[in-house]
Structure formats: C-alpha cells, structure tokens
Amino acid sequence: MREPIFTGKVAISCLNEDIPSMMKCDVVRVDDKIEIRLIDTKDIFTFYLCSISAGEFYILKREQDIRVDFEKFVRKLIEMFHMLSKGQLIGVLSRNNNKFMFLEKNEFRNIVRLELKFCKPDENHYKNYLSDLITRLETDNIKLIKDNSFLKETVKSGDREMKERLKYLEEDYSNLQKKIERLYKENGSLNAECNEKNREIEKINSKLIQSEKDKASLEYEIEKKRIQEVKNENLIYKLEELDKNNKTMESEINTANDIIKKLNLELKEVKKNLNDKEGGYVNLKEDINKYKKVSEDLNKKIKILEEKLKNSKEEIKNKENKIKNLELERNNLIKKLENAQSVYNHFYKKNVETDSPNDSDYESVMSSIRPESPPH
C-alpha cells in the first residue's frame, strides 16, 4: 500500500472545457519516485499523471534552474500544492502539451515557479491507481469495522451504565419523595408551632409596648419631681441668701444712721460758722466786682493796641515792597546808563576823550540818581 503524502482539492485554470475547474490532487511517493495525480471529481477514472524519479528530477533541475536537491524539492512541491489549495498560487493546465504550471501573481507580471508535464495514464497506471483505491477502501473499511465494533461496545457499556444510573436515580427519587413527604409533615407541625409562638410573641410585644409607655410616664413624673426638688433647693438657697443680705443691710443701715447723726451735728456747727463768715464774703464780692471791671477795661485797651500793631505791620510790609520795587528800578537805570555809555564810547571815542567829564562829575551824576528814601 502506498500512502499519499498530499491529498486535496485544487483549483485549475484551463481553456479546455473538458478539464474541470476543480480537481483532486494525490501525491504518492514510492522509494525515489513521486507520482502526482490530478483526478476529476465527477469521474474518478479520469485523471492526469505526472511521475518524477530521482534521475528525471536532475533533468528537470537543469531545465528550470532548480537549486535544491530531490528531498527538498519534494517538500517544496507539497508546500506549493498546499498554497494552491489555499488560493495563494494559481494552477494552470495547458491543453496543448498538458503542462501544469504553478503561477504566482504579481503587480508587474505573473511568475512561473514550476512546470510539470502531465500525461494521460496507460493500463499499468490504471492498475496501480485501482490497486491504491482498493487498498485505501480496504483500509478504510477495516478502520470503519473497528470503529463500528468499538462504538457498539461503547454503546453497550453506555446502555449498561444508563440502566444502572436509572435504577440508582429511581431509588434516589423514591427516597427523596419519602423524605419530602416526611418534611411536609414536619413542616406542617412546625408551621402550627410557629403560629402559636407568633401569637405569644405578639402578646409579649403588646405587653412590652404597654410597659414602655408606663416606663415613659414614670420617667416623666420622676423628672418632674426632680425638677421640683431642684427648684425647692434653689428657693431655699435664695431665702438663705436673702436673710444674709437683710442682716447685712440692717447692720449697714444702723451704721448709716450713726453717720447721719454725726453729719447733722457737723452741719449745725458749719451753719454757725457760715453765718459768722457771711459778712466777710459780701466785702470780698464787692472787691471782686471792682477787679472784674478793671480787667475788662484793660482787655479793651489791649484789643485796641493789637489792632494798631496789625495796621503798623501791614504798613511796614507795604513800605518794604515799595523799597524793593525802587531798588529794581535803580538797577535797571544803572544798566541802561552803562549800555548808553558803552555805545557812546564806541561811536564817539575821541570826543569822549576831550570832552568827557571828570570822574568826580560822573560819580556825582551817578550818585544823584538814587531812589527815594523810604518814608519813616
């Protein structure tokens, strides 16, 4: 028996309508020889054959510039058939010379990766093909028989296990039903007991509520009594303080009465002394009135003098301002005279030398030009 190293359906591109677009491919290796069959899926007795031995491979290697050895070529060939089945390569079968090409599509051009020459099978090839088919069928049949027997045994064992499980489950079910019935009965009795206990609990709760109300009322009364006691204690304390204050007030009143008596005596003595001194006070009042009149006259005179001083100060300020103005005028006149003298000297130098006045006369003239003395 020859086991295929590749089997699967591949897409075929061919212009001949007799060749189908999808064919089954079987690759079988016997020793140093490879057989490739392209089988029609509709008619298994129609196929194309390509056989490559180790010797033929070297011719193919030289013709197509293959760089690998025979073993690696076989692996690459199987890879390309897998790529064909996945649609990564295109298989093209020429109807003229029955050449099969592995094409790789590219943006620029299609690249032929490998060319294999197929032929139509002869009688020996058919015999080998039929023997392979028969052996495969026999092996498949043996496998199916073994699988069938194994499945029958598994089914029988499964049936036995299922029956045992059913028995076990039925027993469990009956036991569970009995338990459920017993639990129902126990549940009924427990429900009755629970209802009775709930009634008792409700009674106890009502008693508790009443007791809480009584407790609250008692606490309220106790609080009232406690507040009343506190108030009574405060009143007693206040009464004691009032008694103490009354006693202290009485003692203070007594001391005040004694002081008042002493003061009354002293007042009587003071009144006597005042009556004696009233005559002296009258004379003093008259003297004081005289002094007041004199002081008023003096104040009037002082005011008049102050007004005169103010007026004199204002006059002095006015005179000082006039003096300043006169000095400014004098300085301006001196400058004008100097300018006139310089002009005169410049244009009339000779006449000035002969007819110029003496220095004493010039000084007398300059001295005669003076500002008026300020009024005294």
Fill in the keyword field for this structure.
376 residues, alpha+beta, Dna Repair Protein Xrcc4, Chain: A, domain 1, 7 strands, 14% strand, Putative SAS-like centriolar protein, SAS-6_N_sf, cytoplasm, cell cycle, SAS-6_N
If strands are numbered along the chain, what order do they take across the biggest sheet? 4-3-2-1-5-6-7
Order of helices and strands: EEEEHHEEEHHH
- Give me the number of helical elements: 5
Q: What proportion strand?
A: 5-15%
Q: Indicate the radius of gyration in whole angstroms.
A: 77 Å
InterPro entries: SAS-6_N, SAS-6_N_sf
Organism: Hamiltosporidium tvaerminnensis
Keywords: Cell cycle, Coiled coil, Cytoplasm, Cytoskeleton
Pfam families: SAS-6_N (PF16531)
Characterise the protein shown here.
By secondary structure, this protein is an alpha+beta fold. The protein has a domain at 4-121: Dna Repair Protein Xrcc4, Chain: A, domain 1. The protein has 5 helices and 7 strands, in the order E-E-E-E-H-H-E-E-E-H-H-H. A 7-stranded mixed beta sheet has the order 4-3-2-1-5-6-7. The protein starts with a strand and ends in an 8-residue tail after the last helix.
Give a brief rundown of this model:
The N and C termini lie far apart (167 Å). A 7-stranded mixed β-sheet has the order 4-3-2-1-5-6-7. The protein has helices spanning 54-64, 70-86, 123-347, 349-355, 359-368; strands at residues 4-13, 22-30, 33-40, 47-53, 90-93, 99-104, 111-117.
